[in-house]
Specification:
The strands form 3 sheets. Strands 1-2-3-4-9-10-11-12 form an 8-stranded parallel barrel, surrounded by 7 helices. Strands 5-6 form a two-stranded antiparallel sheet. It has a two-stranded antiparallel ribbon with strand order 7-8. The N and C termini lie far apart (52 Å). By secondary structure, it is α/β, with parallel strands linked by helices. The longest helix is centred in the middle third of the chain and has 20 residues. The chain has 11 helices and 12 strands. It is globular, with a radius of gyration of 20 Å. α1 crosses α2, α3 packs across α5 and α6 packs across α7. β5 and β6 form a beta hairpin. It is 39% helix and 16% strand.
Length: 337
């Protein structure tokens, strides 16, 4: 008898139909709704200079109001300092006790570049190459503290074992970082990296660096082909394709789709059960309406078929996704400061 592959489900908190995500209390309520449905993670979209509060800061506020669901803010890498970005994502992992991820984004618009005035916006392909370097140096900085680097010995006044802190000495095309980080190694080792691989320019970065890749497709065959392409790319970069989850992003407006939550359950069962993708990322038009119906009507149908769990088995986002906790590359190599 063939075992059913675990299905992964996630959802967007902002929704496709509104530019302003609204008050944090609304986000907390939606996050609790997603957690009650045992979704793997929730994304919070953002754009550089867009309306509303910073997504990473919002989810840092949501973290203590939830216990299990993964929290994945969109973080642009174009006009932000990589050292500060990684420290903020690591802090979210600590605040959430191992439930953090980050969805890498770039800011190609000239208006966004003018907000900072540091440089004109480079071509999108260059921005995604830079984003890949930010992902790489972030992993190095998260690893720059070994897991047992903290001593916290009050009697001797020693907080950290300096032998277990490491300079990363990273040189990229547009930035350099010496390190080490100012934040101890996150609970997950490396928070989960998510890349929207819908656009071809982002696909190479996703294959090289993502733990979760988001795609869009109009058929199961197209989705399966994109998943296979990403797996080939991961293998070409020396990665284990089994450690890359590919989720199909679905825009959902239950007021305008025929069949409603039941039809969505059928689509998810057909595509997910057939192995076209590893799971689905719901992008609701109106989260208060569509996420509630997804959690209350679609998810139970999937559970009835044995396709989705009834609760959380693990504590971290990596647990939910079935991803291993990486060993520090510096501890593994026995590097010196």
């Amino acid at each position: 008898m063939t075992s059913i592959r675990p299905l992964h489900l996630a959802a967007e908190l902002v929704g496709s139909g509104r530019a302003d995500p609204g008050p944090v209390a609304r986000t907390v309520a939606l996050a609790r709704l997603g957690e009650a449905a045992a979704l793997d993670f929730l994304t919070h979209d953002d754009s550089f200079g867009g309306p509303g509060l910073d997504a990473l800061a919002v989810l840092a506020r949501v973290a203590p109001e939830t216990r299990s669901v993964g929290l994945v803010p969109t973080v642009t890498t174009t006009h932000t300092e990589p050292f500060h970005v990684q420290a903020a994502v690591a802090t979210l992992d600590w605040v959430s006790r191992g439930r953090a991820g980050w969805r890498i984004a770039v800011s190609p618009a000239g208006a966004e570049a003018r907000l900072v005035g540091r440089r004109p916006a480079p071509p999108t392909a260059e921005l995604w190459q830079e984003a890949g370097e930010v992902a790489e140096v972030s992993r190095k900085l998260w690893d720059s503290w070994e897991d047992d680097a903290e001593i916290r010995d009050v009697a001797t006044g020693r907080f950290v074992d300096r032998r277990k802190l490491h300079h990363v000495n990273f040189q990229g095309a547009t930035f350099s970082v010496k390190g080490p980080s100012i934040v101890p190694r996150p609970p997950q080792g490396n928070p989960v990296t998510v890349v929207d691989a819908t656009r071809p320019a982002a696909r190479e970065t996703a294959a090289h660096h993502a733990d979760v890749a988001l795609i869009r497709a109009s058929s199961a065959e197209e989705a399966a082909a994109l998943r296979a392409e990403l797996h080939r790319g991961a293998r070409a970069h020396g990665r284990d394709p089994g450690q890359l989850r590919v989720l199909l992003s679905l825009s959902v407006d239950f007021d305008a789709y025929e069949g409603g939550p039941g039809a969505l359950a059928e689509l998810i069962a057909d595509w997910g059960g057939g192995g076209a993708v590893d799971g689905f990322h719901l992008v609701p038009a109106v989260p208060e309406r569509d996420l509630e119906r997804f959690a209350g009507e679609t998810v139970p149908r999937l559970r009835e078929r044995g396709l989705f769990r009834s609760g959380y088995a693990g504590a971290t986002l990596r647990d939910h996704l079935g991803l291993v906790r990486p060993v520090s590359q510096y501890a593994r190599a026995g590097a010196d400061v």
